[in-house]
Amino acid sequence: MGTYLLKENEVEVRVAIPSWLMLLLHIAFSLVTFGVWLPVLIYYILRRATTRYIVTNQRIILEYGILNKSSKESPLDKINNVSHTQSILGRIFNYGDVQLQTASEMGATMFKFIPDPSQFKSEIVNQMDLFKKGEVQAQAKIMANAMKDASTPVTNNDDLKACPKCAESVKIAASICRYCNFAFE
């Protein structure tokens, strides 16, 4: 578990870190330049070690930073589209990028060098579906309770009398029927 805080009833579903292959180019440069590129390589090793991609049952979190921590989150109900791409090397070594498109002003969020990107994408889509089903069930409960409350009579039947002209129920204390204006004696 990272430094991110989970909300009430939120559960971590999947956590991923970038593939070690993100370091491949920097390792090659360090070897070719006889270690001159080594500080850059160390930076990318630390960056990889401190980057987390988290899928929960309520949101997607990107957490990164070596000294300063930063995070970006996308609630599942605000995600419009999820896509993944894999290069030829990505297909061979099973890594790729996953992109989330949201309705926010930030637009798209890219998760780079994800191990098994198609599975990561499928998990996001699955959690989005489960989240929507949960919302629909919660709304159905609210509507059922509201309908139950609406069907409960507000007044007791002992407090009502029937109008002899239109047969509607009116309060016993009424002197005129509010439906047909019949005057009670």
Structural account:
The chain has 2 domains: 12-130, PH-domain like (Roll), CATH 2.30.29; 153-185. The longest helix has 35 residues, at 117-151. A 4-stranded antiparallel β-sheet has the order 1-2-3-4. Strands 5-6-7 form a 3-stranded antiparallel β-sheet. It starts with 11 loop residues before the first strand and ends in a 14-residue tail after the last strand. It is rod-shaped, with a radius of gyration of 31 Å. It has 4 helices and 9 strands. Helix 1 (24-32) runs antiparallel to helix 2. The protein has helices spanning 24-32, 38-49, 88-93, 117-151, and strands at 12-16, 52-56, 59-64, 70-75, 79-85, 95-102, 108-115, 160-162, 169-171.
What is Rg? 31 Å
Tell me about the largest β-sheet: 4 strands, antiparallel
Highest-level CATH class of the largest domain: Mainly Beta
How many domain units? Answer: 2
Number of helices: 4
Strand order of the largest sheet: 1-2-3-4
CATH topology of the largest domain: PH-domain like
Measured as a percent range, the helix fraction is 25-40%
CATH architecture descriptor name of the largest domain: Roll
Structural class: alpha+beta
Which whole number gives the mean pLDDT? 87
Task: Give the CA-CA distance, first to last residue.
Answer: 78 Å
The portion of residues forming beta strands comes to 25-35%
Poorly predicted regions: none
CATH superfamily membership of the largest domain, which one? Pleckstrin-homology domain (PH domain)/Phosphotyrosine-binding domain (PTB)
